[in-house]
Amino acid sequence: MRLLQRFYLVEVVSGLALTAAHFFRNMGAHARRALGQRSASGAVTIQYPEERRPYSPRLRSLHRLVRREDGSPRCVACMMCETVCPAHCIYIVADEHPNPDIEKVPRRFDIDLGKCVFCGYCVEACPEDAIRMDTGILEFSSYTRAGMVYTKEMLLALEPVGPDGRPRSPIPIPADRTP
Amino acid sequence: MPRLTINGNEVEVPPGTNLIEAARRAGVEVPHYCYHPGLSIAGQCRLCMVDIEKTPRPTIACNTPAADGMVVWTETDRVKETRRSIMEFHLINHPLDCPVCDQAGECWLQIYYMRHGLYEPRMTDAKVHKPKAVPLGPHVILDAERCILCSRCVRFCDEVTGGGELGIFHRGDQSEIGLFPGTALDNKYSANVVDICPVGALTDRDFRFQVRVWYLDTTKSVCPGCARGCNVEVHTNRRRPHHAEGRRVARLKPRFNADVNRWWICDAGRYGFAPVDAKDRLLLPGRREGQAVADAGWDDALAAVAGLLARHAPDQIGVIASPRMSNEDLFALRRLLEHRGIRRVAFRVPPRQPGDEDALLIRSDKHPNTRGAELLGLDGDAALLLAAARARQVKVLWVFGHDLLAAAWPEAETAAALGALEALVFTGANANATSERAHFILPAAAWIEREGTWTNFEGRVQRFRQAAEPLGQALADWDLLGRVLAALGAPVAATRADHWFRELAAAVPAFAGMTYQALGDSGARVNA
């Protein structure tokens, strides 16, 4: 450190000057925009979570299971996602489907989001387009490990992100989650 | 002996060998669906086309016997083009439902498409639909859409079991495999059609949707179901324990052995693995105090059993060995008997129902190692032993595996004999009515959890290998017997199954010269 820097006072004043410069520049920009100059734009605060910026459509967010018209899962429990998953976080147990043209259906389809690395391989591997990562939900948390396990019913209830970029389904809260 | 040239390599084959087998000897694989070495030749699938010099067009290899001076090429351009076209033809009406098909991963349509197909599909018409998920019998389920009509299953039922339950019905692209009216595919070998089906048309109802085949590990083993000792592969699921409710053994598959079972295995043996993962497995060494069984720990339990054997006179001790034990176990037991001078030993316990038998594989003796126990000289009269127990001459009885109360003897007499004992020691993998009365319970590892050999009724010594870790604290019989021997002060050098086998080979003339390496995958006959 230089001697001048060691006194701190000079540095404090230069920091204040920088903040103040930004403040007045933004105030000027906002004032010019209010007076009708469209090209002027100042810094903006987004009131998250009430307000959201739209995410990229390529974003990999919380998984959902795609439904058939009757509400049952499109998934046929082929285990491709479970096989390709590098984190081993998908747990599928297959069952017989009453319709022999569908044949196979998952009895259990759990994703342990505590282990998931959001690589999206499950979506790539799915031959039935039965799993997608387009809910727009990034906020999921739990106080327990068990609370990070999302079941088939929870994943089936999720909707894709809306055109405004906002998630259309409420963030699922596991039943066993205790504050 | 015809000498012929296949892809430039000269091979000599026995007369009558067809070109597929001749090529196999030359290290060349000719793709095929309908040909199976255990069945007659059908020439249905047309996939095994090869070029033979001086013939105008490709010829099927399965129905062409090798001839002297023949020159065969299997990878010429027109053979490859023929194969690709035939693959396209086979797949015209195939539903491509690999995601729900249990065969996926071991399906010859998938394998050969990737090796020899890889064409651009040209089929624009709607596919012909046929019945799906039709149960044919207790073990087999049919998906007629996936079938390529190779007729292996039909020929199996006609030629091997002779029941002739299956046939091909209708014509053209409406042809489908089906049962003759009023029949069901319920013969004793029905599930073999699942193994020989090259595609997913016939699948196993027991294995259906349990585990994906690519999660399975394979271990060479021997079926414990009867004295035949059919060679099997144990398919275990270690990687995905949430599948199949945590059962480790997913299925058994026959393993080729020309001298024992060839390609086949009976259904009783194939589905006889349930006890391995059953709820009644004995997991911890226990000691009965009144009604309750307390966990004893191996050191205490074995010290207590060794104490029993040391305290009582040899004449007061009886041992009922089991023909389910391996040769190594029985030899370790023989060492123990010799060390203490125990004479009262038997291994035959007559079953209440006599076992079924047939001319193909199934033997009425439902134990894998009766011959081995005979060769090791453990034969005796178990009924006399129990009579001596009733007369209170035998005070300590060590039972291996058997349920004496389920034997052909009157149950009350057996119960009286067991009740008169001072101590009953039980060693086995699963609980039964006898283990319920035992004072000491020593859990044994199941056959898939350990190494060993069995001697089948023809005297063929065959190895079975470890496919999974023992459940709980179970130990192989030779291991716990070796520990009892050590506790009695006998010198025990062998701490592995192959070491016990080496000692056995040195001590018993019938096994002289055998080692695990020499037994290999197909076993060896004992010295007569």
Please characterize this protein's 3D structure:
The complex is a heterodimer of chains A (179) and B (528). The model of chain A has no long low-confidence stretch (mean pLDDT 89). By secondary structure, chain A is α+β, with helices and mostly antiparallel strands. Chain A contains five helices and five strands, in the order ααβαββαββα. In chain A, the strands form two sheets. In chain A, strands 2-3-5 form a three-stranded antiparallel beta sheet. Chain A has two domains: 3-34; 64-164, 2-Layer Sandwich (Alpha-Beta Plaits). With 528 residues, chain B is an alpha+beta fold. Among the domains of chain B are: 3-90, Ubiquitin-like (UB roll); 286-457 and 468-494, 3-Layer(aba) Sandwich (Rossmann fold), CATH 3.40.50. Chain B is built from 15 helices and 23 strands. Chain B has helices spanning 19-25, 77-90, 108-117, 152-160, 192-196, 267-270, 298-311, 327-340, 370-375, 382-390, 411-420, 433-437, 477-487, 497-507, 516-519; strands at residues 3-6, 9-12, 49-52, 59-60, 71-73, 134-135, 140-142, 166-169, 176-179, 202-204, 216-222, 231-237, 249-254, 286-289, 292-295, 317-320, 344-346, 396-400, 423-428, 440-443, 452-455, 460-464, 524-525. Chain B has a seven-stranded mixed beta sheet, sandwiched between helices. A five-stranded mixed beta sheet of chain B has the order 2-1-5-3-4, sandwiched between helices. Chain B has a three-stranded antiparallel beta sheet with strand order 6-7-10. In chain B, helix 2 (77-90) runs antiparallel to helix 3 (108-117), helix 7 (298-311) packs across helix 13 (477-487) and helix 10 (382-390) crosses helix 11. Chain B is elongated, with a radius of gyration of 27 Å. The model of chain B has no long low-confidence stretch (mean pLDDT 94). The interface between A and B is medium-sized, with 20 and 17 residues.
